[in-house]
Amino acid sequence: MNAFPSLSRRRFAAGAALGTAALALPRLYAQPKLEKNKVSIAVGGKAGFYYLPLTIAEQLGYFKAEGLDVEISDFAGGSRALQAVVGGSADVCAGAFEHTVNLQSKNQIFRAFVLMGRAPQIAFGVSSKTMTGFKSLADLKGKKIGVSAPGSSTNMMANLLLSRSGLSASDVSFIGVGTSAGALTAMRSGQIDAICNIDPVMTMLEQKGDVKIISDTRTLKGTLDVFGGMMPAACLYASQEFVEKNPNTCQAMANAIVHGLKWLQTAGPADIIKTVPESYLLGDRGLYLAAFNKVRESISLDGIMPAEGPLTALKALESFDSKIKADKIDLSKTYTNEFAKRAKDRFKA
C-alpha cells in the first residue's frame, strides 16, 4: 500500500521535470537554424568608413557568433559589387540604399534589411592644382571627375550636384579611382580635376590642401543641406527572393551588423585603430582618426531605416535621372525594418 504514494511521488517528480524541460525548450530554439551558413557579401570599397560597421562585425567575430561563415569580396565601387549580386556570384550586397530604387526601375526587386549609414559620407572637392580659378560647378564642363566607380553612389551624388548647375553627365568625364590609395594618387598627380569620394580619402586630400571641398555629406547637417532630408546610405541588401528564402540567415546578418553598430557607439580612437586592418589607415593614423571623428555621427545607431529616408533617396535620383519615375516606384519594396528591429531589441542598440 505504501508503494502507491511512492509511485505517485515519482510520477509527480517526473512530470515536474518534463514541465521544466518544456519551459526550457524556447530557450534552446531561440536561435533558429540558418538556411545558409556560408554567405558571400560583395562590397565596393571596404576600407572606407562608409562600410566600417561591416568591417567591425567581421573583425570582432560577430558574424561567426551568429553561426555565419561570411566571405566578403571587395570591389572597386558599389556598382561593381551590385553587378556581382545581380549576376549571382554573391548573395548579398553591402552598398548604397539608392541602388534598390534603381534596380526596381528595371523591374528587379532588391530589399535592404539593415542600415549601416544614415548619411552618405560623400564629399565633392575640386583640385587645388588644376582648378585654381574655380568659381562654380559650371567650371567643370569638359573636366575629369574621379568617382569610386562609374554608376556608384559617388557618381550619383556628382550627377546630382552637376544637374543643379545646369550640367549633365555627358558634359564631364567620369573616371573610376577607387576609394583608397588610388584615389589619392589620381588627385595628387593631376589625372583628375575634381573628386567625389568617401573618407578617409577626402579628409586626407582636404587636410593636405589637395582639394577644396564644395559639397559635403559627411555630417547630418551637410546631408540636410544637399538632400533636404536624411539620406540613407550603406546597407545590406539582397534580392527579394533571397530574403524570403533565407529569413533566419538575414536575421543573423542583421544581428551581426547591429552588434557592430552598438560597439561603435562607445568605441574610442584606440579601439578603432586596433580593430581595422593596418592597410585601411593609408599610412597616416592621425588623419584616419580625424576622418573618423568627422563621419562618426553619420553611422547608423541601430540599423533601422528612417521613415522619410527612402523618399529622400527617390527624390534625389529622380531629379537627375530621367529613367526614374517616382510614380512607378513602390518604396515599401525597397527595404524592411523587420530584421533590424529584432536585432535592436536583442542588443539594446
Automatic annotation (TrEMBL):
<dbReference type="InterPro" id="IPR006311">
    <property type="entry name" value="TAT_signal"/>
</dbReference>
<dbReference type="GO" id="GO:0042918">
    <property type="term" value="P:alkanesulfonate transmembrane transport"/>
</dbReference>
<dbReference type="Pfam" id="PF09084">
    <property type="entry name" value="NMT1"/>
</dbReference>
<dbReference type="InterPro" id="IPR015168">
    <property type="entry name" value="SsuA/THI5"/>
</dbReference>
<protein>
    <submittedName>
        <fullName>Thiamine biosynthesis protein</fullName>
    </submittedName>
</protein>
<dbReference type="GO" id="GO:0042597">
    <property type="term" value="C:periplasmic space"/>
</dbReference>
<keyword id="KW-0732">Signal</keyword>
<feature type="domain" description="SsuA/THI5-like">
    <location>
        <begin position="50"/>
        <end position="264"/>
    </location>
</feature>
<comment type="similarity">
    <text>Belongs to the bacterial solute-binding protein SsuA/TauA family.</text>
</comment>
